[in-house]
Write a structure and sequence with these properties.
alpha/beta, TIM Barrel, 296 residues, 39% helix, globular
Length: 296
């Protein structure tokens, strides 16, 4: 996947999702030309793949779901990433997906987890596809547990990646590990610090060469004001701050709005310095450090 951002990373466009009000309006109106225009806009902005979901309707209206998939593939030739935990929804998507229209490239399944491994049953039925694995949770004693340390995140990701390689013959280049970038406003336990360390651990593991490490950035600035203390766009600056630190460690793909101006920040950037300070804190000190993002 190529990127037109300031970073040497791939982009999976995230806008075909009714979580965005404008996209919901398109889906509600069944405005297929509007959905097609949105697909084209993302690819022209540098997206190497497109994430696709039509929301709750996908579970009750497989005909419309298939119609949307075909409409998108009529106008773009990048792979599609099908975003649903429902195996029946994924089955409709994979049946509809035309690999030839994506220059022979397989679809992506978003997302596999240790407790949702049944989605891999589709591999035998539909042949090769790529997968996004969520590393935020692991199975322990028969129950899902949240990963909170770098070791937990990295070991969950490695276990899944090697399982995909051994049991399904999947190349590591077809595996994307989503490290789940969380909101900084509630990070009192050093989760961002752990996430960045997990990226480094995965990227430097000799058994995992070729593995992709990714995440979505929409959560990172949740519940924060629009402007940083230096007057910049706080959410964008914070996303760029994360990428400035994560990309050199091996983070290579983002699920994002492709036309946002992602770019490396200089060392003296106010938000980057404040974000680095957050990474060093825990508890109430972390909350005070977050306030420095928007309050001098």
């Amino acid at each position: 996947m190529t990127s037109s951002s300031g970073f040497n990373i791939g982009m999976i466009g995230d806008r075909i999702n009714p979580g965005f009000k404008s996209t919901k309006a398109l889906m509600d109106a069944e405005d297929l030309p509007g959905v097609q225009a949105l697909a084209v806009k993302q690819v022209e902005a540098g997206a190497g793949a497109l994430d696709v979901t039509i929301g709750p309707r996908e579970a009750t209206d497989p005909v419309f779901l298939a119609t949307v998939v075909r409409a998108i593939q009529e106008v773009v030739s990048v792979p599609l990433c099908f975003d649903s935990p429902d195996i029946q929804v994924q089955e409709v998507c994979l049946k509809t997906y035309d690999r030839a229209r994506a220059n022979g490239k397989p679809a992506l399944i978003n997302s596999i987890t240790e407790q949702r491994w049944d989605l891999m049953n589709l591999h035998k039925a539909f042949g090769p596809f790529q997968v996004i694995v969520m590393a935020s949770e692991r199975m322990q004693d028969g129950a899902a547990k949240s990963n909170k340390t770098a070791d937990e995140i990295a070991s969950t990701a490695k276990r899944a990646a090697l399982r995909l390689q051994a049991d399904y013959g999947m190349a590591l280049d077809d595996v994307y590990i989503d490290v789940s970038v969380s909101a900084v406003v509630a990070d009192t336990n050093g989760l961002h610090r752990a996430t960045l360390e997990a990226v480094r651990m995965l990227h430097t593991d000799p058994q995992l060469q070729g593995l992709h490490i990714m995440g979505g950035l929409t959560n990172i600035g949740q519940q924060l004001p629009p402007k940083a203390a230096d007057g910049s766009d706080l959410k964008l600056s914070l996303e760029c701050a994360f990428l400035t630190l994560a990309v050199p460690l091996g983070f290579d793909t983002i699920l994002c709005t492709p036309w946002r101006n992602y770019h490396p920040l200089p060392d003296d950037n106010y938000v980057l310095a404040a974000y680095k300070n957050i990474l060093e804190q825990t508890g109430s000190n972390a909350l005070r450090a977050v306030r420095k993002l928007y309050r001098r």
